[in-house]
Amino acid sequence: MSGNTLSLSGLSIERLRSFCQIVDAGSVVAAAGRNPTKQSQFSRQIRDLERVLGVKLFVREGKRLKLTADGVKLSALTNAYFNALREISGEGQGAPHPLKLGAAESVIRWLLVPRFTEVVSAAGGPVEMQNHRTSEVVSHLENGQLDLGIIRADARSDALELLPFPVLRYVLMVPRAALPEKSAAGILSVRVLPFVSITGDGQFVRGVERIVEANRLPLKILSKVESFSLAIEVAKVIGAATLVPSHAEGEFPTEQFTPVALDGMDTLNRRLAVAFSKKTTELNARAKRFAVRLSRAFEGGLREPS
């Protein structure tokens, strides 16, 4: 063996498995379950890996550990390696391991769950769905924690391959009691419109603010919540308006709420994409097949809510 060839003597399966556990947990303490003995063992294993590879795998951010660029590469390859082993084992036992799909809560609840039989068919086996923000889905795809993701098409990463997925649209749901003659046509005559908003300052929130300003809506924000599911429930309880994905319209009783069209609503539309890692395609061929089939299953667009 050439003297320039990397020695793999320190890359034991156990050390790589511990590395993946720490990546998943976000810290040595969390991965070890606050067991001091395991904490020492995990810390030593990471130091050994870094020594053998000659690179830094983590940097500390507060109480959490963040992967370095080299750490992301190792995580992606290691997760793909373990997934490939599980695939071989699963095929031998006739029980494929679940593929991990990450997406925003709204995408999972209103787009994927209603067509879950098609999702499972596309996967060719069990699917584990995880709720994450788009930025987290991208990160988890890059480091191999997820096999597949549904993300905003503009959230690009050189490490990911994107396939088409339909556009997600939004609707303003307004309590009829707040509208003149209880009709959507009276929206511009409303003096005060109680409203439930989504927290944060992301693209969606900024887009809503622009629409409100353009239409001169006299909003009175009564509550801010973290998810569309909470926005719907709070809006129904307190009788307030809220902006939600159009496929959530059916969550509102028609005798109490009505959808209202506003100028500029189409600016909120989000083109989505099915994403998977380019780096691990050869080791994770099943994930790529899942991505292609899922994209094709939805190529006719999203079914309008009944």
Q: How would you characterize this protein structure?
A:
- The protein has helices at 13-25, 28-31, 36-53, 69-93, 105-112, 116-123, 134-142, 203-215, 228-238, 285-297, and strands at 58-61, 64-67, 99-103, 127-131, 148-152, 160-168, 170-175, 193-198, 219-225, 241-245, 257-260, 270-277.
- Helix 1 (13-25) crosses helix 3 (36-53), helix 1 (13-25) packs across helix 4 and helix 6 runs antiparallel to helix 10 (285-297).
- By secondary structure, the protein is an alpha/beta fold.
- Strand 8 (193-198), helix 8 (203-215) and strand 9 form a beta-alpha-beta unit.
- The longest helix has 25 residues, at 69-93.
- The protein folds into three domains: 13-67, Arc Repressor Mutant, subunit A, CATH 1.10.10; 73-167 and 270-297, D-Maltodextrin-Binding Protein, domain 2 (3-Layer(aba) Sandwich), CATH 3.40.190; 170-268, D-Maltodextrin-Binding Protein, domain 2.
- The protein has ten helices and twelve strands.
- Strands 4-3-5-12-6 form a five-stranded mixed beta sheet, with helices on both faces. Strands 9-8-10-7-11 form a five-stranded mixed beta sheet, sandwiched between helices.
